[in-house]
């Protein structure tokens, strides 16, 4: 009995194919560069029971890659050791150096995606900084781990596998810099380390973008704030970050920290305030004096995660010429303030920048 016409046509086409020709060549795997900077994902403990007591930044990138041979199933990977540090010590100079390397690699035709392995303590600042300054639509993924590879139920290997699978996925392009941790894919803008000892440490107040599961990415939302190619900040044209410092607000606070930071050369002060970024009455006069001397005052909040600091609420920001950090936590506000100051010293323009990014 003859085949229906369509199937007959298909049968004839495949019969014409040279013997032994495969039906379809497997797609070439994406070329992913892994930039290693240290952290727990490169950590080592004395015993498998040491999930919290260990030394970060010990395992070199080639050993890190060799410890997850499954990476080759999802991408062609190669590694570079950019730093080998615990990220609590990640300086602005190192942020600039890393950003410039990511930017240079993103311009190479033989690079389809980039993964940065990083300590978890300041991973959120690095991811946000890259999100604001690297002009590429290729996937850039930052990844860490909460347990060293030597620990029972270590999370680093699967986090790295998921990060490489995400960086190899064309669907991850154009979404800004991403953070992959604990099977979740977050935007580098929103995510922060919210718990210090659990594998589910990283949270985004407005939710993750998606998930990486068994080498596949699943997306449920996309970022709306400006990033990467839509950013007015370009790492290729930034060689210095102005000094910006953070002081914590509390009821018994004094102006000392703010005055000392100003005396050391800070161009802006991030106030990690109570509630809606509120400022103790004992501190307000000193901040107004510092503003009058040209230092920017930016109100963030101790209370982050699902809210935002509202302008002119308890503090008359218009009258004081102060700025609000919107929904950014103090450490992310510090990154954006430093970048804003590379462009302008006008408080109203800086406020627009905080609303845009
Ligand atoms: N000290 C921490 C860091 O390097 C370890 C880690 O959690 O990665 O950020």
UniProtKB/TrEMBL annotation:
Matches recorded under PROSITE patterns: ASN_GLN_ASE_1 (PS00144), ASN_GLN_ASE_2 (PS00917), ASN_GLN_ASE_3 (PS51732)
Keywords from the UniProt entry: Hydrolase
MF annotations from Gene Ontology: asparaginase activity
Span of domain Asparaginase/glutaminase C-terminal: 243-354
PANTHER family to which the protein is assigned, alphabetical: 60 KDA LYSOPHOSPHOLIPASE, L-ASPARAGINASE
Binding locations of substrate: 87, 120-121
Family assignment from sequence similarity: Belongs to the asparaginase 1 family.
Gene Ontology terms: biological process: asparagine metabolic process
InterPro entries membership: AsnASE_II, Asp/glu_Ase-like_sf, Asparaginase/glutaminase-like, Asparaginase/glutaminase_AS1, Asparaginase/glutaminase_AS2, Asparaginase_C, L-asparaginase_C, L-asparaginase_N
Active site: 40, 120
NCBIfam families: asnASE_II
KW Chloroplast (keyword) present: no
L-asparaginase N-terminal domain segment(s): 31-223
Lineage of source species: Bacteria, Pseudomonadati, Pseudomonadota, Betaproteobacteria, Burkholderiales
Species of provenance: Aquabacterium soli
Protein name: Asparaginase
Domain of life: Bacteria
């Amino acid at each position: 009995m003859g085949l229906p016409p369509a199937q007959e046509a298909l049968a004839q086409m495949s019969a014409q194919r040279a013997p032994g020709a495969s039906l379809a060549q497997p797609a070439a795997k994406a070329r992913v560069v892994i930039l290693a900077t240290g952290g727990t994902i490169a950590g080592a403990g004395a015993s498998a029971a040491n999930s919290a007591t260990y030394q970060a930044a010990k395992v070199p990138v080639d050993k890190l890659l060799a410890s997850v041979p499954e990476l080759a199933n999802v991408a062609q990977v190669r590694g570079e050791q950019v730093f080998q540090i615990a990220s609590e010590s990640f300086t602005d100079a190192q942020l600039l150096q890393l950003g410039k390397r990511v930017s240079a690699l993103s311009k190479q035709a033989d690079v389809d995606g980039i993964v940065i392995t990083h300590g978890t303590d300041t991973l959120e600042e690095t991811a946000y900084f890259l999100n604001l300054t690297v002009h590429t639509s290729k996937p850039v993924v930052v990844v860490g781990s909460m347990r060293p590879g030597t620990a029972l139920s270590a999370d680093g290997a699967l986090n790295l596998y998921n990060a490489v699978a995400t960086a190899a996925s064309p669907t991850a392009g154009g979404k800004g810099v991403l953070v992959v941790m604990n099977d979740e894919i977050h935007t580098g803008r929103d995510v922060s380390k919210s718990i210090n000892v659990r594998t589910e440490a990283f949270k985004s107040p407005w939710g993750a973008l998606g998930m990486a599961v068994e080498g596949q990415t699943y997306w449920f939302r996309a970022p709306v704030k400006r990033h990467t190619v839509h950013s007015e900040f370009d790492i290729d044209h930034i060689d210095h970050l102005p000094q910006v410092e953070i002081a914590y607000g509390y009821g018994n606070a004094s102006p000392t920290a703010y005055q000392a930071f100003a005396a050391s050369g800070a161009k802006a002060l991030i106030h990690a305030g109570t509630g809606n970024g509120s400022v103790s009455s004992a501190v307000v006069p000193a901040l107004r004096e510092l503003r009058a001397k040209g230092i920017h005052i930016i109100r963030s909040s101790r209370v982050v995660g699902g809210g935002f600091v509202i302008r002119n609420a308890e503090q008359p920001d218009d009258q004081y010429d102060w700025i609000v950090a919107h929904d950014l936590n103090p450490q992310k506000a510090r990154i954006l303030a430093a970048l804003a100051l590379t462009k302008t010293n006008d408080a109203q323009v800086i406020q627009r920048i905080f609303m845009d990014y």
